[in-house]
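Structure in, sequence out. Go:
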């Protein structure tokens, strides 16, 4: 009975560890997918700013670039992406 309890505890920790890895992997996939959309948005905002010289597009571009920078830092610092 003691052996079954030990195996159950080991199984719990192994499954918990595996779920944490899968959760982290899902975050990486989401962020890397969003990076492509965000880079396209930044290109469009840059084009609009250069064409129409509107200040609000520059503010939006700064927000998008900050999101891209945070996402890039997360992806580059994660062990699974190396």
């Amino acid at each position: 009975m003691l052996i079954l309890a030990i195996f159950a505890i080991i199984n719990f920790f192994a499954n918990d560890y595996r779920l944490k890895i899968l959760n982290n992997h899902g975050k990486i996939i989401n962020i890397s997918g969003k990076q492509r959309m965000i880079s396209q948005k930044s290109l469009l905002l840059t084009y609009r700013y250069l064409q129409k010289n509107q200040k609000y597009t520059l503010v939006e571009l700064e927000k998008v670039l900050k999101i891209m920078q945070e996402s890039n830092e997360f992806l580059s610092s994660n062990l699974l992406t190396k």
